[in-house]
Amino acid sequence: MIRRREDYSLTERWLHRLVLHSTDIRRLSFDLEAFVLGRTVQPTSDRPVYLCGLARSGTTLLLRLLEQSGEFASLSYRDMPFVMAPNLWAWLSHRWQRRGPAQERVHGDGVLVDYDSPEAFEEVFWRTFDSHLERDLDGYGAEMPSEALLEKFARYRGLVEAVIQRRTGEARRRRYLSKNNNNLMRLEALCKEPGATVLLLFREPIATARSLKRVHERLGAEWDGFTRLYMDWLGHFEFGPGHRPFLFARAYMRDGLSVSSPDYWLDYWTAVHRHILENAAPFQLVDYDLLCRSPIDALDDMRRRVISRNDLRSLAVQVKPLRPEGAPVEFDPELVARARDVHRALQHRRVAETCGAAA
User: Fold this and answer.
1) I need a surface site. Which of 49, 103, 303, 354 has the fewest CB within 10 A?
2) CB of 197 closer than 8 Å to CB of 48
3) Cis check: omega of the bond before 81, within 30 degrees of 0
């Protein structure tokens, strides 16, 4: 998700700035691609799959597993920076496509990325066309997307599916797959799409808070001007100096907590997931801890959830046991109790969903 300044040449940094910094250029590139390919590319195939959740909850892992199943279409680093016109960019850039060894991402979590790694670029679409996005020093928020915007989004999904079909040479179009944690702001709209599956991942709160704090501090030490802009362009405000909490979480959070405090991240976890529990949209909960403990069973269940033609259990070897992140930290006991109550409620709701699906 996050790339270092040294990962890009001067020309590449200039091109990223030119394309991603300008809303007008992003809109123009999308409109041009939609015009050129409009007669040959259908708006979208059916049954898209959306992955979301608070950062550090396993969305990257699940994105990779589903993408490797060969059934889903998702953008990769190779589509940057023209993620709003991936087909035209693929045609223009195919002669000088870069290759290189996989490198650990700057999170320091052992996840390796290369140019073909699927990633979270969908928010660029919403930041381009959603005039109701709110982003200030207090947080990041969105209103319910209009029908016109959702129709445009369907056309965008079709362009993503088309570029992956051309890249793989397959006769069948793959289903759209995205990882976008900011879709926590759009659950109702995405769940209303015919055939859509929205998978919302959650993780044990103490481990998540420790992980968020660790990555936040790590990025603060390695941040530079290009990285800050890169994160802003992609709508990644999860941690680091550009952190912006979801606006919907503010009503649940304790006042006065600093992002340097572990209590802030635990309180933020609780606030986000309280909001999720109060949402009646038919998303499906995925317990990341359960996935890591019993990957074969979890992936077999995942196949049923996303209505996959393929057996996902062979991918279980890629799921590693969870490891402690960072030094042990002390949390406010009251915040711990609140977080654990919410975590139990999430687990109960997930079990109820599973039982309901099996009935």
Assistant:
1) 103
2) yes
3) yes
The Cβ of residue 251 has, within 10 Å, a number of other Cβ atoms equal to 9
β-strands 175-179, 72-73 pairing: parallel
> In the 8-state DSSP scheme, what is residue 3?
-
DSSP-based three-state secondary structure for 273: helix
Distance CA 315, CA 296 (A): 8
The angle subtended at Cα 126 by Cα 124 and Cα 131, nearest 5°, is 125
The domain that contains 131 carries what CATH number?
3.40.50
- Could you list the residue range(s) of the whole structural domain that residue 245 is in? 5-358
112-113 and 103-104 strand pairing: antiparallel
For the record, the structure tokens of 74 come out as 């998702």
124-158 pLDDT, tens per residue? 999 999 988 887 768 999 999 999 999 999 999 99
3-state SS of 134-185 is EEECCEEECCCCCHHHHHHHHHHHHHHHHHHHHHHCCCCCCEEEEECHHHHH
Distance of CA 130 to CAs 35, 122, 196, Å? 20, 12, 21
Q: What is the pLDDT of residues 280-296, one digit of tens each?
A: 899 999 999 999 999 99
Specify the long-range contacts of residues 155-158, CB closer than 8 Å, at least 24 apart: 155/34, 155/43, 155/44, 156/30, 156/84, 156/125, 157/43, 157/44, 157/48, 158/41, 158/42, 158/43, 158/44, 158/45
Helix, strand, coil percentages in the chain from 3-state DSSP, rounded to 5: 55, 10, 35
Beta strands in the chain (DSSP E): 49-53, 72-73, 103-104, 112-113, 134-136, 139-141, 175-179, 197-202, 284-287
How many domains, the chain?
1
Which amino acid does the sequence have at 357?
A
**Helix, strand, or coil here: 54?**
coil
Residue 223 main-chain phi, psi, to 5 deg: -70, 145
